[in-house]
């Protein structure tokens, strides 16, 4: 039992961590937490199932198409729900605009795709039991994403420009960095990361429209616990959350495990509103 | 659905009758239409109209949270669910002996009030997005518990709703009952909106720092509103269960939550009529556009997006007459300092405000490094120094926004606790801000009335029911606010929305708000910034007149002329230390001051 708790806990934890990174990637360049993060994960599963099962594409083209489609959705988020409200960030209108867009995505999916969970194909067919690919694929995807982001941020010029904008928007613009294009790129990147989460976790979560809201919440928990914009915090928080949730699942049953997660989330946040690795709030006066 | 107009008359005693009529006729018209609805004889309409009434009972409370306090409580369907199940379970007798349906509804409201606080508590510590998430999470949890707790809630099979006795057992009888409750809720929440509690809520929303400086304690205020909104929502839930006759967890979808939330936003923030119209619109929309029923949630979401992007003010902004009247151009602020004695009275003897050896560092920077300062009653004390010398930081330490690392403060001989911003107003310390902190959507008069919030003695219940003491206090407060506006020269703009004022007018409005407290100490943070030469001259007279009433004025300023002209005493700061202190003559000739700051 311990082995299966570990396997499934790590798997869902990796998915939550990826959604957390999706939140953070959008937040870094725009200071906006977007409700579309979870929907991107949901779309990763739906597009994957669509391309592979309904249209019969092989794995690689399907993966590339899924990532591209979700990157487009990410860019659309930036255009429709983020850019128009950036001027008045302090009024928090982005909470409403991204919520509206997220709901539109979710309901369009429910109506045009299906309101029932649809199957997601086996991708590689490697491993069985607790070494089944549905358990290790999300972990591998998470590890690959972290390595990729580290390479991007540390070794490439574009990545450093990202960091500069994330650190200080105004200073970056004063240096002549194309802040707007970088923001669009970061939303595309976030879309692809979210899609990867849904695609790698497709066999666990299936292609189901309601996953969006679920991933929104469970992906946000690690961000809140780890501190806004802190990817390391999101990964640690995500894995811990996954293990905690699966352990509770096995011991007290599904419904009470979500109550337990919710209670833990609230208690930790009330104790440390800025998260475990976050910076304290800024000056107000 | 509409206000009981006779009772609302009593709630707004100070309004002239013409404006009273224009404020209330929409409610009266809606109530009239609602009362005539049974003439159609169509039972389907009874169902829809009853549903609209029930939704409004919930939305009227939620409106205070979302529209007034600005807290994004998205998952409010959770409280509807709790109310519906509590009323149904108690009336059916699954837990105890079966209760009378009315008693069951009352208990449901109580349980809802408690749960309302539980859902709302995170708002006291968490920022917007976080709070939105926690309410969403709560909504999910409640539905799952309703599914899982089978022996009580019937699980997925459900449970019959409470069946009410005659005359509420017919479609139209129940409709009239719900209409009466809805009208009552309109009146109650309208009373709150027009009271000091309503003004405090919007101030917490748009200018939290100013709310603290006015002595408004956000936690107490929000808890009371969460209690009220929770009770209303759960009561609506009981009525909803009765209307449905049978409830399952499926009846409480997230779409309903969305409907409630969007109704408030479409209606517009800080309005009662707007969200009422929003609720009617969203309840009727799916009925009118039946072919689109499957897409209704998509449409709600699209509507939300359009509202946020295109008209953040909602319906309320469209119908607000204060937006349309033209303001005279080339208007000038002409204060009348001679009115100050009547407004402020004479301050009683006071030992003054003293700072001793205050040190405050931000990271490695010592913003204030051992400052001593004495502010005496009746004196105008200038605080000057180059940028970054610690002037505003000193003000913020006195106001309690920053907590110094070492050093002590006393006020009238008693220690002044560090970091207690909300407690400053009660000690007679008022202030203005470098960037005016105002509520743009409220009128100038309402903004100024906030300044004397702590003097209100009538409690939340008295305000809710608009009892005599509450009405008396409101009248007195409004009269004083008009007096304060006359004194600073803004009387003609009292009923204008504050966001239509010019920058210089906002500065004078902040002074009026601070004067409402009849402060023993008034701290002005660069009041002359952005003012014309004429306006500075008038400000100068006003400040001196305030000093003559025994109020100690602490003035942070860059205009050296103003400082040397009106100050009795000046402290010069440099790099967080006191460079010099003394009378204007001493400072003017102080060698280091001249070389470091004044030049020459």
From TrEMBL, chain A:
GO biological process: amino acid transport
Keywords in alphabetical order: Amino-acid transport, Cell membrane, Membrane, Transmembrane, Transmembrane helix, Transport
Membrane topology (UniProt): Multi-pass membrane protein
Keyword Transferase (UniProt): no
Classification via Pfam families: BPD_transp_2 (PF02653)
Family stated for the protein in its record: Belongs to the binding-protein-dependent transport system permease family. LivHM subfamily.
Residue ranges crossing the lipid bilayer per the database entry: 6-25, 32-53, 59-81, 93-115, 135-153, 187-211, 217-243, 250-272
One of the record's GO cellular component terms: plasma membrane
Location (main, coarse): membrane
UniProt name for this protein: Branched-chain amino acid ABC transporter permease
UniProtKB/TrEMBL annotation, chain B:
GO BP annotations listed: D-alanine transmembrane transport; L-alanine transport; L-isoleucine import across plasma membrane; L-valine import across plasma membrane
Compartments where found: Cell membrane
Chief site of localization: membrane
Membrane topology designation: Multi-pass membrane protein
Gene Ontology cellular component annotations, sorted alphabetically: plasma membrane
InterPro entries referenced in this protein's UniProt entry, alphabetically: AAA+_ATPase (IPR003593), ABC_AA/LPS_Transport (IPR051120), ABC_transp_permease (IPR001851), ABC_transporter-like_ATP-bd (IPR003439), BCA_ABC_TP_C (IPR032823), LivM-like (IPR043428), P-loop_NTPase (IPR027417)
Keywords: ATP-binding, Cell membrane, Membrane, Nucleotide-binding, Transmembrane, Transmembrane helix, Transport
Ranges for domain ABC transporter: 353-600
Protein name from the UniProt record: Branched-chain amino acid ABC transporter ATP-binding protein/permease
């Amino acid at each position: 039992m311990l082995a299966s708790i570990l396997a499934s806990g790590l798997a869902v934890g990796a998915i939550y961590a990826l959604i957390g990174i999706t939140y953070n990637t959008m937040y870094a360049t725009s200071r906006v937490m977007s409700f579309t993060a979870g929907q991107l994960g949901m779309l990763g599963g739906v597009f994957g199932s669509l391309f592979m099962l309904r249209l019969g594409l092989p794995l690689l083209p399907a993966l590339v198409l899924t990532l591209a489609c979700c990157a487009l959705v990410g860019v659309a988020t930036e255009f429709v729900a983020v850019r128009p409200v950036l001027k008045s960030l302090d009024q928090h209108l982005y909470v409403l605009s991204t919520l509206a867009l997220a709901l539109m995505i979710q309901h369009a999916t429910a109506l045009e795709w299906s309101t029932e969970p649809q199957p997601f194909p086996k991708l590689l067919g490697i491993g069985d039991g607790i070494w089944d690919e549905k358990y290790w694929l999300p972990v591998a995807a998470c590890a690959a994403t972290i390595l990729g982001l580290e390479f991007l941020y540390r070794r490439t010029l574009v990545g450093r420009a990202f960091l500069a904008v994330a650190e200080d928007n105004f200073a970056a613009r004063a240096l002549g960095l194309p802040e707007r294009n970088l923001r669009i790129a970061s939303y595309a990147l976030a879309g692809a990361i979210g899609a990867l989460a849904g695609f790698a976790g497709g066999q666990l979560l299936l292609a189901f429209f309601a996953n969006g809201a679920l991933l929104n919440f469970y992906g946000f928990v690690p961000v809140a616990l780890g501190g806004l914009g802190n990817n390391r915090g999101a990964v640690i928080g995500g894995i811990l959350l996954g293990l905690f949730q699966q352990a509770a699942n096995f011991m007290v049953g599904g419904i009470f495990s979500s109550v337990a997660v919710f209670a833990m989330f609230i208690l930790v946040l009330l104790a440390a509103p800025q998260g475990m690795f976050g910076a304290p709030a800024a000056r107000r006066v | 659905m509409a206000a009981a107009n006779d009772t609302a008359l009593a709630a707004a005693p100070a309004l002239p009758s013409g404006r009273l009529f224009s404020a209330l006729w929409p409610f009266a018209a809606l109530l009239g239409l609602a009362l005539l609805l049974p003439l159609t004889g169509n039972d389907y309409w009874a169902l829809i109209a009853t549903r609209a009434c029930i939704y409004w009972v919930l939305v009227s409370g939620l409106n205070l949270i979302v529209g007034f306090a600005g807290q994004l409580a998205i998952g409010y369907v959770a409280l509807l669910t709790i109310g519906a199940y509590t009323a149904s379970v108690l009336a059916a007798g699954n837990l105890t002996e079966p209760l009378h349906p009315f008693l069951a509804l009352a208990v449901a409201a109580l349980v809802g009030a408690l749960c309302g606080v539980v859902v709302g508590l995170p708002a006291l510590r968490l920022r917007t997005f976080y709070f939105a998430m926690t309410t969403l999470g709560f909504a999910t949890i409640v539905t799952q518990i309703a599914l899982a707790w089978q022996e009580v809630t019937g699980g997925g099979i459900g449970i019959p709703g409470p069946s009410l006795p005659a005359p509420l057992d017919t479609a139209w009888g129940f409709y009239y009952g719900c209409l009466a409750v809805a009208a009552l809720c309109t009146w109650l929440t309208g009373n709150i909106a027009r009271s000091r509690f309503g003004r405090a809520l919007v101030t917490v929303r748009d200018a939290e720092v100013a709310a603290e400086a006015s002595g408004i304690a956000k936690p107490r205020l929000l808890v009371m509103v969460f209690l009220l909104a929770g009770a209303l929502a759960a009561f609506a839930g009981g009525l909803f269960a009765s209307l449905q006759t049978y409830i399952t967890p499926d009846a409480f979808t997230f779409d309903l939550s969305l409907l409630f939330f969007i109704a408030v936003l479409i209606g517009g923030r800080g309005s009662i009529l707007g969200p009422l119209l929003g609720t009617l619109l969203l309840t009727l929309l799916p009925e009118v556009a039946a072919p689109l029923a499957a897409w209704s949630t998509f449409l709600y979401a699209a509507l939300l997006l359009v509202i946020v992007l295109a008209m953040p003010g909602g319906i309320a902004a469209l119908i607000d007459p204060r937006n349309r009247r033209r303001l005279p151009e080339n208007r000038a602020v002409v204060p009348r300092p001679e009115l100050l004695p009547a407004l402020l009275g004479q301050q009683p003897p006071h030992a003054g405000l003293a700072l001793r050896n205050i040190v405050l560092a931000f990271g490695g920077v010592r913003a204030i490094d051992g400052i001593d300062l004495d502010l005496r009653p009746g004196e105008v004390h200038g605080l000057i120094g180059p940028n970054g010398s610690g002037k505003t930081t000193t003000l913020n330490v006195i106001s309690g926004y920053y907590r110094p690392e070492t050093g002590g403060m006393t006020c009238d001989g008693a220690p002044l606790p560090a970091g207690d911003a909300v407690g400053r107003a009660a000690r007679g310390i008022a202030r203005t801000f470098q960037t005016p902190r105002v509520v743009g959507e409220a009128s100038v008069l309402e903004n100024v009335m906030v300044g004397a919030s702590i003097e209100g003695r009538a409690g939340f219940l008295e305000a809710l029911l608009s009892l005599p003491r509450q009405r008396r206090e409101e009248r007195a407060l409004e009269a004083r606010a008009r007096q304060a506006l006359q004194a600073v020269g803004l009387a003609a703009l009292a009923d204008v929305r504050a966001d239509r004022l010019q920058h210089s007018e906002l500065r004078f409005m902040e002074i009026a708000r601070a004067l409402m407290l009849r402060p023993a100490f008034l701290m002005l943070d660069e009041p002359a910034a952005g003012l014309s030469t004429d306006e500075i001259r008038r400000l100068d007279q006003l400040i001196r007149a305030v000093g003559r009433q025994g109020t100690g004025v602490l003035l942070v300023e860059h205009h050296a002329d103003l400082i040397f002209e009106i100050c009795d005493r000046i402290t010069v700061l440099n790099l967080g230390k006191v460079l010099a202190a003394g009378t204007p003559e001493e400072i003017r000739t102080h060698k280091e001051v001249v070389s470091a700051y004044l030049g020459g």
